[in-house]
Amino acid sequence: MASVQQNGQRFGVSEPISMGGPTEFDVIKTRELEKHLQDVGLYESKEEAVRREEVLGILDQIVKTWIKTISRAKGLNDQLLHEANAKIFTFGSYRLGVHGPGADIDTLCVGPRHATREGDFFGELQRMLSEMPEVTELHPVPDAHVPLMGFKLNGVSIDLLYAQLPLWVIPEDLDLSQDSILQNADEQTVRSLNGCRVTDQILRLVPNIQNFRTTLRCMRFWAKRRGVYSNVSGFLGGINWALLVARICQLYPNALPNILVSRFFRVFYQWNWPNAIFLCSPDEGSLGLQVWDPRINPKDRLHIMPIITPAYPCMNSSYNVSESTLRIMKGEFQRGNEICEAMESNKADWDTLFEPFAFFEAYKNYLQIDISAANVDDLRKWKGWVESRLRQLTLKIERHFKMLHCHPHPHDFQDTSRPLHCSYFMGLQRKQGVPAAEGEQFDIRRTVEEFKHTVNAYTLWIPGMEISVGHIKRRSLPNFVFPGGVRPSHTSKGTWDSNRRSEHRNSSTSSAPAATTTTTEMSSESKAGSNSPVDGKKRKWGDSETLTDQPRNSKHIAVSVPVENCEGGSPNPSVGSICSSPMKDYCTNGKSEPISKDPPENVVAFSKDPPESLPIEKIATPQAHETEELEESFDFGNQVIEQISHKVAVLSATATIPPFEATSNGSPFPYEAVEELEVLPTRQPDAAHRPSVQQRKPIIKLSFTSLGKTNGK
To answer: Which residues of this UniProt protein bind Mg(2+) 2?
Structure first.
């Protein structure tokens, strides 16, 4: 393998952290990793690969026939008619070479100036596809942020975008990497081209494409198993993971995938967000397109985990990340780092790293969002809309009630006994470090109702599209959320996560007074009385509040939350920044502040490796701009940006990687939940009338009555 030193090329915005090559141990562990990825079915067969290539060839011929047809219909002269052309490009996981069996192929059709998006792409081409027997499940989405058509061609799923270039003829050797291709292009075309341009640029900026692909396959699989693979839910999507892996490949250009995976967790566990990730210095360009730059654009300062695309115009690919989802991902990076260190001493293996996250064991309280529609097509549209708005519910709850953390599950669940229904779940946990007065309650009825009102204001809403939001305890979760529809008889044992939880509980018991959590939970459950759920079903608040009769009516929930250990300051107070950014002065005033609180005494150090030299330039991080962005629409006015600002502890860059530490509350498992929620009976609204937003207030309260008892007061 040619090293970066040998060919004299430097990748990225900084010098590498390590130029070290692989050891025999690395070769063995990488082979084990590759075998594991093959065993779990991440690689497609040769037959499927050939079929995909054939389908792409068919699609290319379809768009070429389409462009000839519309050119003739528009009366172009013989020369232009002869030269009329459209071309298919691929991007995303297929172009990166990390797609798996049955995965969609992201494709882009590039057409000339006279082939319009509205009239021709979503007109004639859509008609042609709808009449072809080999095309099934055709779903045009012309109003999306990036308009596309989804369909299956000979059984292969295709997402087709369109870019209309200001050219009369599209050459076969068209190079999309040239910035001039964006000149005079509309915004939708720029966004459509961006996928191909970013994908190709990533492949140009990594030192070894094969090592990059293996590592990215691993990280995508890991993220899906751990429930942090979903851009729409506020986690990271495919392009985000590709950019992060590419950056690690730049920092360790001669490393094999086993080391790249380990260093991925090591680097990003310590990364001082919101310092941005860059693969190359951002190009401001000469076309006047807006680029990500928090020095100029105030909205860019709101991003808390910026991962910047390498192609002009550079954008933040991770703008959906929230405070809670960032906290969850940092916890997962910490877990991954611990396991990779344990693997070096043969105390863990790849199976341990890829253990699925037990979402329905991690919390004691959940929100359940149920939706339904009249038919399959309506449900598909309704699901897409609701999924795009669920992040707003998370942000609203966290903004309005700063003592709660929300953990959204990235996927929906289907109850086979209820066709045309699906459910989403969010774990609820009291936020650590928030002081609370005894008996204090917080009514979030309006928060939930605003969310439902926004969802129900869907411009394509039709009767039959329904939504309801309710609280459910862990013991009452429906069976359809569990694998095979069978509720486990006991919680997971023997896994890395369960062992770490046990260790944490044992250490907490030995160092703290007698716990009163169990007593509190039992007493709180007894208060529920007849409202307690039976037979695993979700609580009901009356016939008028059922999904069918009154889907927009409110649910009434009270939350009783015992005290948890509080976190102080940064999650890793002694961990220095290893960030590197070409934008040194994008913060408000260029100043940095020391950690305001001392690290807790029970912090555990995990690192065994000697520190690595980091020849990375120092930068100043933003002083206080870690905020969250809420989007409002419809009856709540135009898009509104609401900020939640809190002091960000800033650490300056250092020249070494210090030892790793646990979270500031001493817990290696950041999702430990100790609170209980209870339902309060309330007067039901009149089912004959649809109440207004002000009238429809689900009583969802947080009660801190038991806090004094938990503290031993």
So the answer is: 104, 106, 159
